[in-house]
Structures are given as C-alpha cells and as structure tokens.
Amino acid sequence: MSKIILTGDRPTGRLHVGHYVGSLRRRVELQNSGEYDKIYIMIADAQALTDNADNPEKVRENIIEVALDYLACGIDPEKSTILIQSQIPELTELTFYYMNLVTVSRLQRNPTVKSEIKMRNFEASIPVGFFTYPISQAADITAFQATTVPAGEDQMPMLEQTKEIVHKFNTVYGEALTEPNILLPENEACLRLPGIDGKAKMSKSLGNCIYLAEEPDEVKKKVMSMYTDPDHIKITDPGKLEGNTVFIYLDAFSKPEHFERYLPEYANLQELKDHYTRGGLGDVKVKKFLNNVLQEELEPIRNRRHEYEKDIAYVYNILKKGSEEAEKVAAQTLTAVKDAMKINYFEDSELIAKHIAKYQK
Ligand code: ATP
Ligand code: MG
C-alpha cells in the first residue's frame, strides 16, 4: 500500500513555534526521508472561514504567510504538494456525503470542538460550518487516501472521527476509503506547546505565540516575559518545573550541543533542571539560555523566508500548481465514492436498462 501524508494549517495568522515542534519540523523530516510516496500539505482556508466568516480578509491575507512559513521551514515543492483547500471543490462535495454518516451528538462530544467553542465564546451561537468542521477534515484526509497525518495532540479527536467515518462508509457502501493514522510528535513537550503566557496551548487565536518569522529582538522580548514558576521569587528559592513554560520550551528545543555553546557549566538539561528545583538558579539565566537556543533554531528559517519573500509571484505559482495537481487526485476519490454510493446514474447502464425494461410495454 502507498504511504501518503496529508497535513495542514489554518491561514488565521503566521505560523508559530508550536506548529513547528508539533508538526512542521516532523513534516520536513518525513519529506526528506523519502519513505512516503506522496505528501500533501493543505492551507485550510475553507476551515478558517468557519470561525472567521465576518473576516475573510484575514484568511485571504494569511495564505501567503503560511506558504512562506512552509517554504522557510524546508518544505520543498518538488517533494511535497502544497494546496489551498477552497480550490478543490471535490472536498466540499465529499463533506456533504459524509455528513449523513455522523450524528449531531457525536460532533457535540468531540473534545477539541468543545474546547474551541468555549475559547471562541460560540456557546450561544455556533456557526453550523464550524460545528461540522471535523467532517470536512475527514473529507480532506480521505480525498488523498492519506495513511498518515502528522499533527499535534489537539488533532487526535479529529482523526478518531475520520476513522469512524471511513469505517462507516466502507461498511455501508463498500471499500473506497483509506483509514488514516495520526503521527504525534515523539517528544512529550511538543504534543501541545503552551503559550508564552503559560496557557495550555500556543495558538494564533490566543495571541500568545512566538512566530517563526519574528525578528530576533522580538523573540528575545517574548522569551524574557515568559511565564515561569510564580512562587520562584528569590534566586535561592527552589523552583517548580511543572507548568514552567521556559523548561517546557527547553524540552522541546534544546539539544546537548546548545549546552556546550551557551551554558557549558551544565552538561545537559537534566543538570539545569536539578539546579532549578534545588534552588539557587534564577529565571533570567534560564531565559537567556532559551533565547540563545531559539535564536539559533529560528535564524535559518527567517533567512530562507526573506529569500522567498523576494519572489511572491513564484510562491503563488507553487500554490496554483499544487492545487491543480491535488484536485486531480481528489476527483478520483470522489468518483470512487459516488460509484460506491451508486450516485453515478449516467455511467450505470444496468440501471438505465432496468428502467427501460420497466416501462417497455
Ligand atoms: P487556530 O487558533 O486558528 O486554530 P492554531 O494555532 O491552533 O490556529 P492550526 O492551524 O489549528 O493552528 O493547527 C495546525 C497544526 O499545528 C495542527 O497539526 C496542530 O495540532 C498543530 N499545533 C497547533 N498549535 C500547536 C501547539 N501549541 N503545540 C503543538 N502543535 C500545535
Ligand atoms: Mg487550531
């Protein structure tokens, strides 16, 4: 069986370091591993519109930003197909048919949708499109017959929902769809990187992000303002690691060689953590170290981005070509789906012959 990746992001803002550790870094590794037959990376503009209906300009402006961030991180359009969701009408059509396979109560139980509804204060008036976006996500994944979806932990309920739809479809109509699996980050800190404010998730919509394209002094300012242990007041106080954003980021980003370069008095992260919990290590020193680590990781990304920014027309062309290529694949799946559901009347000569016979006197 072919190994196919589908993954993507909503163009609701520039991409941040949470996207990077949760999904983007892995995608580039998988792309370069050569182990996958096809990789589709989708800019989910139609999904972004489900909770930004009154602000289409925001979505429109951010498509190019997300594309630039992809290229900056090392997504190579020769190896991966980058597509824009709204340009593939087959995805909407698949969504419509899958809607019949999902109940309202099942959608209401989706924990990610639940928490996102709360976060957006949608409780009283949830747009139908937003409520049903897990179904459209199932359409995106299955349209490309994806086997693997590299994503952060918040996407687990979406993958569960997709698997249920695939199972139901294949049982009711016959095997036409491939069941996908989520590929989570191996490093626990990367499953759901918290925001710089210590909130559970760094998210474009919460404004607690360090963006990939951020300039060095802005990154430094954000790192120095990060949430740590509120009870760690004097340097001599023992510090807590749990919920301490700075240490979570070090778990996600630091490598042994960073200690050699920037903090040689510690052999590794464990030694630094031990000192912090014992007491005697100030937040500022740890934050300065994290700043060095992040600057090193982000510099090549920022530089590559600046190169692509010089040729925006070329980037739009990548998106256009990718969307065209993706549409051909989605169209094949849609045909298979409609064949399985028997809504292929004009191709079904038996059906026509049967009805001719029925009315032949
Ligand atoms: P929005 O607030 O508009 O939903 P977002 O920041 O949550 O934006 P998405 O585009 O919804 O970003 O998510 C894209 C991908 O990045 C998904 O695979 C998601 O799991 C992953 N991701 C997003 N935020 C984080 C995070 N803080 N830590 C790890 N992975 C993340
Ligand atoms: Mg999100």
Describe this structure in words.
The chain has 361 residues and is mainly alpha-helical. The chain has two domains: 4-192 and 312-353, Rossmann fold; 216-308, Tyrosyl-Transfer RNA Synthetase. Helices cover 55% and strands 6% of the residues. The protein is built from 16 helices and five strands. It has helices at 17-33, 45-49, 56-73, 89-98, 104-108, 111-119, 128-131, 133-143, 156-173, 216-224, 245-253, 256-262, 269-278, 283-309, 312-341, 349-359; strands spanning 4-9, 38-43, 81-84, 148-150, 181-183. It has a three-stranded parallel sheet with strand order 1-2-3. A two-stranded parallel sheet has the order 4-5. Helix 4 (89-98) packs across helix 8. The longest helix is centred in the last third of the chain and has 30 residues, at 312-341. It is elongated. Bound molecules: adenosine-5'-triphosphate and magnesium ion.
